[in-house]
Amino acid sequence: MAEQVTKIDIFSGFLGAGKTTLIKKLIKEAFQGEKIVLIENEFGEIGIDGGFMREAGIQVNELNSGCICCSLVGDFREALKKVVETYHPDRILIEPSGVGKLSDVTRAVEGVGETLPVSLNSFVTVADVNKVKMYMKNFGEFYDDQISHASCIILSRTGSADEKKVAAAVALIQEKNPTATIVTTDWNELTGAQIVSVMDGKRDLVAELLSEAQASNAAHADEDEEEHHHHHHDHDEDGHECCHHHHDHDDDDDDDKGYTPGKSVVAAFEAKFPNAVAVSWEKKGEYEKAEFHQNGQEVDAWFDASGKWMMTETDILFANLPAEVKTGFNESIYSAWQVEDADVLERLNMPTVYRLEIEKGNEEMLIYFNEKGELVKEVNEEASTLPTAVSSFITQQYPKALVVTVDRWQDGMLEVGILDGSLVKEVLFDRNNGWMKTSWPVLKADVPQVVLDVLKGEAYNSFSIASVQYIEYASGSDVYHFVLQKEHSMDISVEIDPQGNLVLD
Asked: From the centroid of its chain, how far is CA 158?
């Protein structure tokens, strides 16, 4: 009997590109019945949750003590050998750190293949279609290595990108790797088996989807609608049904293999978003994230385990922004820039802000406006990967927190947005990645009376409290930061320590 050969598939890509989402989809839809081992090493990104893996019968080996690309000669190769000899899997899935070089990982696997019955089946790079140009510009050889050494490149988030953006990304990729198969179809429209077939060979997905649609349309004329949706994947019919069966994270409740959070979370979601369609759920650390469509918009909503709403991110057309925001943009220094994307960000106990992704030539920025149309933050969109020092600090200080945003400011400072328990916190680091401060909103009712009494003084008693934040400074001092407002007057900021001492006026 021929010796079993273990297939090895490597899934490369920068942090946040969607590697974990893709792997989960393939495990659910394409690898069932296979004995799978996942070797995972990711910094700053939520790994595949253990519950999902146990249900799927997957053995997980995590190398979180060190980066795969930094331990190729030693630990990684030994770990790979141990996995093969211990479990004799049909397939090994390797998800290296987003900052590792794909070429280094593939060479390490090939080295193991000289002594063990393994074959390098595919080396896939997952690339966010919206960030290809930016990453090529800012990360140079590291990103180019992932692109140029991939046998298959799978673009993520193409469903929300326009054709021009997708075509531009493909052109840039082909300059670096003219031979790789590039998947541009929205993952919602593909089964896991289709994706694997592309990884393994040169399958023509465009032709297949067209053929599938034609067959489905023909069948629809003779069969009832229920049978049609069960056996075919017609993407010319109702969009809800399409996403319902092929969402790139998890299928909805009608698919018994899909992830569903607890009843309290679902009930809270349905109460807050009664018009949601094409809903899919994903476990993100301590939180539950729903992706769905509502009123023709793409929406992400976050809840804690008890069902408490934490934040919502809604995709919005520039034309549909409030007049104040459009005016603020048109009167800003960025008015000549092109708006690539716009989102509404709503967070618990925090003011609503509007985030615009803009570009001009080779420059890309994220700019934020409040509801008054005032420009409140400008971010140079050059880094979404957390530096090691920053990642270590957050892990130590906020061990259960989930990183949700990473913004590099123009002056080099780094702002990391986290969900820590029920609090949305902003953690600020200087250009050398040293911690400066952490802030989060608080309710007036939670402010000590001794602090509020300071605002009763003659200098402030005519002002009302617009917002309150609690701030922890690296210096060791904690303060309550108030923004005070009065009609026909400029807003003022006041900081008071917990003992009632005025620190900043």
From this structure: 14
Write out the two tokens for 110: 């090939």
CATH code where residue 292 lies: 3.10.450
Give the pair of three-digit tokens for residue 138. 């800012």
pLDDT, tens digit, 9 for 90 and up, residues 456-492: 888 888 888 888 889 999 988 899 998 888 887 788 8
Question: Under a CB-based contact definition with an 8 Å cutoff, are residues 194 and 22 in contact?
Answer: no
Say if residue 284 is in the same domain as residue 197. Answer: no
Average pLDDT over residues 93-102: 71
177-231 confidence digits (pLDDT tens): 887 889 999 888 888 888 988 887 643 444 444 444 445 445 544 544 443 333 3
**pLDDT-derived band at 41, boundaries 50, 70, 90:** low
- Reported as type and span, the H/E element at residue 194 is helix 192-200
Calpha distance 140→108 (Å, rounded):
22
Tell me, what's the pLDDT at 98? 56
Residues 6+ away with beta carbon under 8 Å from 38 = 23, 48, 53, 58, 59, 60, 61, 92, 93, 94, 95
Q: Which helix (H) or strand (E) holds 472?
A: strand 464-473
| Residue 328, in any domain of the structure | no
Instruction: Calculate helix-pair angle for 132-148, 102-112, nearest 10 degrees.
Output: 20
**Residues 41 and 169 reside in one and the same domain:** yes
Place of tokens 């050059």: 382
* Higher pLDDT, residue 345 or 422: 345
**d(Cα 162, Cα 167) in Å, to the nearest integer?**
9
Q: What is the pLDDT of residues 408-438, one digit of tens each?
A: 776 678 888 888 877 788 899 998 889 999 9
How many beta carbons lie within 10 A of that of residue 401, not counting itself? 20
Task: Report the C-alpha gap between 473 and 489 in whole angstroms.
Answer: 29
Residue pair 258/250 in contact by the 8 Å Cβ criterion: yes
Residues 6+ apart with CB under 8 A from 181: 151, 152, 153, 198, 199, 202
Answer whether residue 177 is part of any domain: yes
Give dist(CA 291, CA 271) in Å, integer: 15
Q: What is the mean pLDDT of the chain?
A: 77
Which of these three, 249, 282, 315, is where a domain ends? 315
pTM: 0.43
| Nearest residue to 94 via CA among 19, 200, 152 | 19
- Give the whole-angstrom CA distance, residue 90 versus residue 336: 55
DSSP 14-37: -TTSSHHHHHHHHHHHT-TTS-EE
Q: Are 370 and 356 in contact (CB under 8 A)?
A: no
- Please tell me whether residues 53 and 112 are part of one structural domain: yes
Give the three-state DSSP class for 379.
Answer: strand
Neighbours of 158 (CB within 10 A): 22
* Pair (64, 188) in one structural domain: yes
